[in-house]
Known about the structure:
The structure holds two protein chains of two kinds. Chain A is mostly helical. Chain A is 81% helix and 0% strand.
Amino acid sequence: MQPAAARRSRPVALLQAALPYLVIAAVLLLWEVLVRLNGIQPIYLPAPSSILRYLVAMLLDGSLPYHLAITFVRIMAGFLVAAASGILVGVIMGMSRLAARIIDPWIGALYPLPKIALIPLLIIWLGTGESYKILISAVTAFFPVAISTFAAIRQVDPGLIKAAKDLGASRHQRQLKVVIPASLPGIFSGLHLGMGVTIIMVVAAEMIGGSSDSGMGYLLVHAGQVMETEKVFAALIALAVFGAVLTSVQKRLDRLVAPWADGQH
Amino acid sequence: MEIAVDDLVQAFGDAPNTVLALDRVTHRFPAERVTCILGPSGCGKSTMIQIIGGIEPCTSGKVTIRDSGSSADRPLGSRSVMVWQNLNLFPWRSVVDNVAFGLEMHGMAREERQERARAMIASVGLRGFERHRPAQLSGGMRQRVALARALVMERPILLMDEPFAALDAQTKIVMQEELIRIYERSKKTILFVTHAIDEAILLGDEIVVMTARPGRIKDVIPVDLPRPRTQEMVNTPEFGRLYDRVLHLIREEVLSAMRQQEQAVN
């Protein structure tokens, strides 16, 4: 609009865009310098440069991709089970008052229970194999998905339902063509919460299951036990990047499926 | 279509805390005319047209719709269709899919309903915006989509619940002219709820003035301005006389409604 203002603000905008990265670079540099100057043992705090060396080595020898892939498959399995069952239960509760009354006390009692506390029981029942890891993450993620779905359906604008009825939509059509699409943004925010806890629970289950020999949780515990602190840091960085990628892919999928809901959650 | 309401009563809540929204309302809304329903907020005017439209059940009373036999419409479903105060467009549907919603619900084939919806969109002046979503349109354009979605159903009765209340003054004038044009072309029976006196006079063949809660009909004022109506009529002495008369009626009711609200707060 105003060319003078635009010219002045352009370098400022560029600096603002670059600032977060500059801060990251500065923190890493400070870390490197402090570790080197004080001669801190790598077993306590390795320098970023040596973590990077380990990260590259673990990528090249295939150990990091292997464990990451296994964890990814477990997360997807747990997430899909939680998403399907959570959406189904949430929709049933949202559509039927009776179902909501029957299911609500169960959710009320089980949701606040820390799901990690179920690990001993699940290991007794299922052993430390795949089904235990998938089930513990699915059970944890089920609750936010079901609760968000239920809430989203309940909060659908009654005006939209009235308008659909006036235009001749049957009860079934109102549910399918109005209630479900109107509650999609709310269901998506439940799926985001569910994905977050699935990642946490899969890695936790991999750490706790004694006989587990694969996955990022195993990699972390194993490296920690033999005091390979560089490996621990490398695994943590890989997990953080991995989690960020999963979340952003999920956001992109949301936008693809429900572009009208952009910015609603 | 003549609409007769007899002893319409609408009470909300359980005894002893019932609130009477409509109290024995009886009126004949003339066929193929525009009747404007004017009253203070909370007088039950929206409730009344929702009952007439079959959207809300009433506590007691009767709504009779009589076919005058002259309508060329081929209505889909019920005989009336509502244009809502807050529009109630479906935000996930494009303009064309919003307009085609009712046709889709009645099982019309995709090609035919899209064709009819497109024709209606063009006739309200939105050609080229078929693929836009409601959020991408201005308030006035969204209003046109809501109008098109109702008109495409070809129902002989159009119920309008303060449809232009949220628009800015200029857009409102344009939309009023649009409605006048639609009326002249289709001769539908229109019930138009508003709280704007000038709008009621400009659009209506008669004005039903309602009392503050509980809603009763205070007076019915015929508007004898010639048709087709134009915005220029606002400056005629007849318009001014009508305005004064309605204002006098409505002022008492607005004051009474304000007293009710004050009591409710205290």
